[in-house]
Every structure is written in structure tokens, then in C-alpha cells.
Amino acid sequence: MSFLQMRRQRMQDDFAEQVQQALEQWKDAQNYFENVTDPDLVDYAIFGLETARRRYRYMLKNARERGAYIPYRLEDNIV
């Protein structure tokens, strides 16, 4: 494997890891939203959920635009 191929593979792995981290943050935000009981925190939970969703979609789009192979839409795992 050439240096450029190794570098490209490392870049794709980094993008995939960033997308996975964003997905985990989205899942955490979803879980928080589903379990928040204090009415004063509902808006905070909604904001966090929307922020995490947008970050995930941005990271996924960015990774794909830069040629990273993301085999499927990870967000399909989110209810």
C-alpha cells in the first residue's frame, strides 16, 4: 500500500470515527430527551437533541463530500 493510499485510508477512518461519535451524541441526546422529567429542562433537551442531529448530518455530509466511505445511513438506527 502506498503512502497516499495509507493516508487516504486513515482520513476515511477518521471521518468514520467522527460520524460515529456524532451519532453517539445524538443517541445520548435522544435518551436524555426521553427521560427528562423536569419541565424546566424540556426545552434544553429539545435544543440538545436538535443540535446533535444537525451535527451528525453535517459530519456525515462532510465525510461523504471528502470521499469517505460511509456504508449506510447510521441515523436509521435512531427512532
Q: What's a quick, concise take on this entry?
A:
The protein is about 75% helix and about 0% strand. It is mostly helical and about 80 residues long.
Description:
It is a single chain. By secondary structure, the protein is mainly alpha-helical. It contains two helices and no strands. It has helices at about 5-35, 40-65. Helix 1 (about 5-35) runs antiparallel to helix 2 (about 40-65). The model has no long low-confidence stretch (mean pLDDT about 85).
User: Shape, please?
Assistant: elongated
Poorly predicted runs are none
Query: What is the β-strand count?
Result: 0
- Termini separation comes to 40 Å
Q: What is the strand content?
A: under 5%
Radius of gyration in whole Å, from Cα? 16 Å
Order of H and E elements: HH
Helix proportion range: over 70%
Q: So how many helices?
A: 2
Sketch the major β-sheet. none
**Residue-averaged pLDDT:** 86
Secondary structure category: mainly alpha
List keywords for this structure.
79 residues; elongated
Secondary structure layout plus pairing:
Elements lengths: L2 H33 L3 H27 L14
